[in-house]
Amino acid sequence: MSVTMRRLSRAAIAGLVAAAALTAAAHSAEAADTLGSAAAGQGRYFGTAVAANHLGEADYAATLDREFSSVTPENEMKWDATEPSRGTFTFGSADRIVDHAQTQGMDVRGHTLVWHSQLPSWVSSLGASDLRTAMNDHINGLMGHYKGEIHSWDVVNEAFQDGGSGARRSSPFQDKLGNGFIEEAFRTARAADPAAKLCYNDYNTDGVNAKSNAVYAMVKDFKSRGVPIDCVGFQSHFNSNSPVPSDYRQNLQRFADLGVDVQITELDIEGSGSAQAADYAEVVEACLAVSRCTGMTVWGVTDKYSWRSGGTPLLFDGDYNEKPAYGAVLSALGGSGDPGDPGDPGDPGDGTLSCTATYTRTADWGSGYNGQVTITAGGEPISSWTATVTLPAQQSVSALWNGTPTWSGNVMTVRPSWNGTLAAGASTGFGFTVAKNGSDAAPAVGTCTAS
Question: What is the pTM of this model?
Answer without folding.
Answer: 0.72
